[in-house]
Amino acid sequence: MQRVMLALMLASLVLLQGCLGGLRDSVTDALPEQRGIPGGLTLACLSSAQFTDMVIEIDHAPGYAPEATTVELLIDRLSDVCDKPNGVKAVITETSFDQDGSWSADDVRAQALEHREAPPMDGTTLRWHVLFPSGGYDDDNVLGVAVNAADVAVFRDSIDDAENILQRPNAEDIENSVTLHEVGHLLGLVNLVYTSPRDHEDPDHPGHSSNEDSVMYWAVESSSLGAIFSGQLPDDFDDDDRADLTDLASGDLDAEQQLWRP
Question: DSSP of 131-187, one letter per residue?
Answer without folding.
Answer: EE-SSEESSTTBSEEE-SSSEEEE-HHHHHHHS-TT-SS-HHHHHHHHHHHHHHHHT
